[in-house]
Amino acid sequence: MPDRFNELRLRFNGYDLAFRACDEGVSYRCVLAMPDTITIVSEEASLAVAGQAEGVLGIDTTFMTHYEPTFHQAPLDTLKDGRRALLPTLVAVQGGPKIAITESQLEDYPGLYLVAGPSGGSALVGLLPRAALELMDYHGAHKLAGLDRTWPNVLGFEGVHGLEHNKWATDVTPDHNVTLPFTRMLAGPMDDTPGAMRNVESRDFRIVSNHPQAQGTRAHQLAMYVVYEAPLQMLGDSPTAYEREPDALDFLRAVPTVWDDTRSLDGRVGEYVVGARRRDDRWFTGAMTNNTARTLSVNLSFLGDGTYSVDATADGINADRNAMDYRRERSTVTRSTTLTLQLAPGGGYVAMLTPAH
């Protein structure tokens, strides 16, 4: 992401207030110029949203949060009576764009929550715990706040409602999976523990703790390794499961851990997502859909010159009945090619595109 912005800095007694305007966002922060340590007595933050806006919200009722919410679309005035939105929060402005709200560079400071303003409507007010000591639940769920930008050796975080919940819950759905790139992933890498090999359609899903299933197709799971940002990826299933699935393991061996370029190609919150990533001269593209079957067109104009060999995993002809059904496809393409993807309910597609030297 280019670090390109205009900045306005206002100097006060002991601190600066810095505003930055980038091509697709704005931010502000306080920069202290005081020696040693200080105590922040209070902080106020309020956001006025035009019209009757809704949000894609991860809600909790306590400051001892695990940062692993499911996200639901709801009016902003839902955030009252003890209900608080975790960050990132995605706000859909009526008749306008979607606006993501998050924070970064939290060090020895509590994280921000959002609640409805006292006048109702679409106003949002920031709410902070009384002390950072109330945020000590770090079990695999560290709050995302830009730590990996300061310390590049930080590879990732959980803090996501991931596949482990399939052992006791039914809400890790394809709809949830295609909401995460627009919400939780905005804050940074997420260790979603993808790669389940026991794939079922949502209507067939059952909670079996010692033999867990995952909703969505095999191609849906493999596409997560491209769509989701996670420099330290997980293989969420057992070693023997991958030994029985050599095609999946061949693909997973080839997926890089870091990328040189990332493109968001298409998507709608909670419906579908299509992305592409490059390492050196090799591209990977991934697509995922919710529980609605759909046909997607993917323009490959992001490719370099010449011909590319494609090794793809797509939903099989029976994937709408047997989510483990997939097909392996090989073809050649150029930057003028447009792929047509047929995704089953809860389906996916993933491909590796290598220059044909």
Q: SSE order, as H and E? A: EEEEEEEEEEEHHEEHHHEEEEEEEE
Q: List low-pLDDT spans.
A: none
Helix tally?
5
Helix % is under 10%
Strand content: 25-35%
Based on CA inertia axes, which overall geometry fits? Answer: globular
Keywords:
mainly beta; globular; single chain
Plain-language structure description:
The structure is a single chain. The chain has 357 residues and is mainly beta. It has helices at residues 147-150, 174-177, 218-227, 239-243, 246-254, and strands at residues 6-11, 15-22, 25-32, 46-47, 54-60, 71-75, 84-85, 89-92, 98-101, 113-116, 124-127, 199-200, 214-215, 261-268, 272-279, 282-289, 294-299, 308-315, 326-333, 338-343, 348-355. β10 and β11 form a beta hairpin. 36% of the residues are buried. The model has no long low-confidence stretch (mean pLDDT 89).
Structural topology:
Blueprint (H helix, E strand, L loop, with lengths): L5 E6 L3 E8 L2 E8 L13 E2 L6 E7 L10 E5 L8 E2 L3 E4 L5 E4 L11 E4 L7 E4 L19 H4 L23 H4 L21 E2 L13 E2 L2 H10 L11 H5 L2 H9 L6 E8 L3 E8 L2 E8 L4 E6 L8 E8 L10 E8 L4 E6 L4 E8 L2
Parallel strand pairs: 12-13
Antiparallel strand pairs: 1-2, 2-3, 4-11, 5-6, 5-7, 5-8, 8-9, 10-11, 14-15, 15-16, 16-21, 17-20, 18-19, 18-21
